[in-house]
Amino acid sequence: MRQSEIHRETAETKIQLSIVLDGSGKCDVQTGVGFLDHMLTLFARHSLIDLSVHAKGDLEVDAHHTTEDVGICLGQAIRQALGDKTGIRRYGHLTLPMEETLVTTAIDLSGRSYLVFTAPIPAPKIGDFDSELIEDFWQAFSANALCNLHILLHYGRNSHHIAEAIFKSVARSLRIAIEVDPRQTGVPSSKGTLNS
Prior knowledge:
There is one protein chain. By secondary structure, this protein is of the alpha+beta class. It has one domain (3-178): Ribosomal Protein S5, domain 2 (2-Layer Sandwich), CATH 3.30.230. Helices cover 34% and strands 31% of the residues. Strand 5 and strand 6 (101-108) form a beta hairpin. The longest helix is centred in the last third of the chain and has 20 residues, at 159-178. The model has no long low-confidence stretch (mean pLDDT 95).
């Protein structure tokens, strides 16, 4: 099975995260940040990745360190679970509607990190969650998964819907990219590697 487990401990956070790529979307998430838990649950359900996250962070400061460090750990776990990436589709993209909102995401598990985040979120906060942390989460994820990730908001009014559409669309794009292609032999790259 393609799976991995990450432990990260700093002066700011302590995180245990595990994934099973070929799962069914089972989710056990406890970060102490309610909105992040909601987004990670959506991510698991739509990617069909089994996800367990237990995090303790310096929430007396704010949710920044916890959110960013969970993104780091999720990216590392994806990279680790994919191994040498033999047989995967590598690319995935999806345009996802969420009521009045429309978001497109595209991902390349290239072994090189790059984030393009063109998704302005109207409200500075969603509940007590700082909206700017959504971009920070995906920046941390892409840097540690070593993937190209493009997130484009075509239009949308409701900040919660925009955030939800982003997480669902990335999950669905990733689900396509990590899928094993029965026609693919070896690594899907003319370089012969996707890890550098």
